[in-house]
Write a structure and sequence with these properties.
By secondary structure, the chain is an alpha/beta fold. It folds into 3 domains: 283 residues, Aldolase class I (TIM Barrel); 100 residues, no CATH class; 119 residues, Alpha-isopropylmalate synthase LeuA, regulatory domain (Double Stranded RNA Binding Domain, 2-Layer Sandwich), CATH 3.30.160.270. Helix content is 40%, strand content 20%. The strands form 3 sheets. It has an 8-stranded parallel barrel with strand order 1-2-3-4-5-6-7-8, surrounded by 7 helices. A hairpin with an 8-residue loop joins strand 9 and strand 10. Helix 6 runs parallel beside helix 7, helix 13 crosses helix 14 and helix 16 runs parallel beside helix 17. The longest helix has 24 residues. It is elongated, with a radius of gyration of 35 Å. It binds 3-methyl-2-oxobutanoic acid and zinc ion (ZN).
């Protein structure tokens, strides 16, 4: 097997030392034209049925496309029937123009006009190939021969349009394989076509395709800028761009082409199209949106877009597809989770978006925040805290976040995969709410004891520790210090409360309290957490959960 790069040659660049496009900034949306129903459809293993096309059509209209290429009616009967169904079924809104593609051949042009009969408005898009390889190897013609095909095609389009005066026609020409065509020749052939049309009074479009993407996007932008600056009739038409994604830069090339002078962009939803696909309109529109520019398409229901595209193309979306994939707003890495959690906590609802790792607010695309942070062995305390806060209402102190995330991480490593929120909760509950040894508070009483010089409250409490009933009695400033005093008296341990907090937990309609305690017992740290309807019970149980672990550890050491 040979893997020999010398088999290939670089795409020629063009001399454009005074190029202007690098200093331009995109500040508004282009005119969009969807080619899902034509280019996208032509690339499918199983082309769309009429039902699927109608579903795609309805979506495209709903999203706000004003120009939609609906097929190649002279080349395919289903495409012809679909165009008829749109026109006869009166499914074309007044502000939407359909477009059809046709080769520069009279019989095909005639058939295309038949398909379009009765349309209020339509774009007839005629093309022929212009690159050296197409001229020499496919058509066996020189430049003059290729220009003659284009010019004749343009004449036929104009003539046939005159036979259907009730439709408002727009004429569009594509020098197919423009990106591989000598740019001076592309200008020559397009000007020759426009010369046939410019006094027709019809709106005109020249569409410049990267039929095959063959160079870096800056080279394409140079070609477009050169084209725009050298065409004699540039003022007479809109420049449209139609990029494919062979090098993975279809969107970048279209964006730079816009900076280089284009007005209009053709592409498909989520990038379906020949070979590696057409330029993805969703990505490009969302790129504008994320810069504060109105994309003039409403992509807020991303799940609906995905579901229609998947239904019509039978191609599943990649989970990391820009903006739309199910993982694109998800952080697994601990440091990312931590940063996202902190930023989201400071993000005011109506303020400018400023959240690390999230270029846009997932909620704008109908995504909820649950998907933002997901937990596997790469995750850290921020992520675990996020899930427990969002799904279970816990506001854990930092020391507990650190400890809990270690336990969750160990479980994720053991399972070699992602943990659901429920699995994270079980790790938490097993670690802190029912720690080893099974202890449960049975009953307690607290009385004021002003006479005592030790403190103000006297606590009597019965609990089970390791299956044995234990009675404790102590005094302190409050219930917790009375319990640590009791523990100290009973076991002779040096007990200190390092940190304690509690808060209400809302689950359903009932409100419970959760208490978190960090104890030092004989200089060892122990964590206890407990949930109860009553906050004092939760606090006492949390202390017992923590303290009982010291018993367990001591017993283990002794045995
Ligand atoms: O990719 C291409 O060149 C095309 C043209 C027919 C516009 O789809
Ligand atoms: Zn194409």
């Amino acid at each position: 097997m040979t893997f020999d790069h010398s088999k290939y040659r670089p795409t020629p660049t063009i001399a454009l030392d005074d190029r202007q496009w690098p200093s331009r900034v995109i500040d508004r949306a282009p005119d969009w034209c969807s080619v899902d129903l034509r280019d996208g459809n032509q690339a499918l293993v199983e082309p769309m049925t009429v039902q699927q096309k109608l579903r795609m059509w309805d979506l495209l209209v709903k999203l706000g496309f004003k120009e939609i290429e609906v097929g190649f009616p002279s080349a395919s009967q289903p495409d012809f029937d679909f165009v008829r169904a749109l026109i006869e079924g009166q499914r074309i809104p007044d502000d939407v123009t359909i477009q059809i593609l046709v080769q520069a051949r009279e019989s095909l042009i005639a058939r295309s006009f038949e398909a379009l009969e009765g349309a209020k408005r339509a774009i007839v898009h005629v093309y022929n190939s212009t690159s050296p390889v197409q001229r020499e190897r496919v058509f066996g013609l020189d430049k003059a021969g290729i220009t003659a095909i284009a010019v004749q095609g343009a004449k036929w389009v104009r003539e046939y349009a005159e036979r259907y005066p009730q439709t408002q026609w727009t004429f569009q020409y594509s020098p197919e394989s423009f990106s591989s065509t000598e740019v001076d020749y592309a200008v020559e052939v397009c000007d020759a076509v426009i010369a046939q049309w410019r006094d027709s009074g019809k709106p005109l479009i020249v569409n410049l395709p990267a039929t095959v993407e063959c160079a870096t996007p800056n080279v394409f932008a140079d070609q477009v800028e050169y084209f725009c600056r050298h065409s004699r009739y540039r003022a007479d038409y809109r420049v449209s761009i139609h990029t494919h994604n062979d090098r993975g830069c279809g969107v970048a090339a279209a964006e730079l082409a816009l900076m280089a002078g284009a007005d209009r962009i053709e592409g498909t939803l989520l990038g379906n199209g020949e070979r590696t696909g057409n330029m993805d309109v969703v990505t490009m529109a969302m790129n504008l949106y994320s810069q504060g520019i109105d994309p003039k398409l409403n992509l807020s229901d991303m799940d609906e877009i995905i579901s229609v595209v998947e239904h019509c193309t039978a191609i599943p979306l990649h989970p990391r597809h820009p903006y739309a994939g199910e993982l694109v707003f998800t952080a697994f890495s601990g440091s990312h989770q931590d940063a996202i959690k902190k930023c989201l906590a400071q993000q005011d609802k109506d303020a400018q978006w400023d959240v690390a790792y999230l270029p846009i607010d997932p909620a704008d695309l109908g995504r909820n925040y649950e998907a933002v942070i997901r937990i596997n062995s790469q995750s850290g305390k921020g992520g675990v805290a996020w899930v427990l806060e969002n799904d279970y209402g816990l506001h854990m102190p930092r020391w507990l976040q650190i400890d809990a995330s270690r336990k969750v991480q160990a479980e994720a490593e053991a399972q070699s995969g992602e943990l659901s929120a429920a699995e994270i909760w079980s790790v938490f509950a097993a670690s802190y709410l029912q720690p080893q040894g099974q202890q449960s508070l049975q009953n307690f009483s607290i009385s004021q004891d002003n006479a005592s010089h030790h403190g103000h409250e006297r606590l009597k409490l019965v609990t089970h520790i390791n299956g044995q009933a234990v009675s404790l009695e102590g005094e302190g400033d409050g219930a917790i210090s009375a319990l640590t005093d009791a523990w100290q008296q009973r076991y002779g341990d040096a007990v200190e409360v390092i940190d304690y907090s509690e808060h209400a937990l809302k689950s359903g309609t009932a409100s419970e309290a959760i208490a978190y305690v960090l104890l030092s017992i004989n200089k060892q740290r122990y964590i206890g957490v407990a949930v109860n309807n009553d906050v004092v019970s939760a606090s006492l149980q949390a202390v017992i959960n923590a303290a009982a672990q010291s018993q367990h550890t001591t017993q283990r050491k002794a045995s």
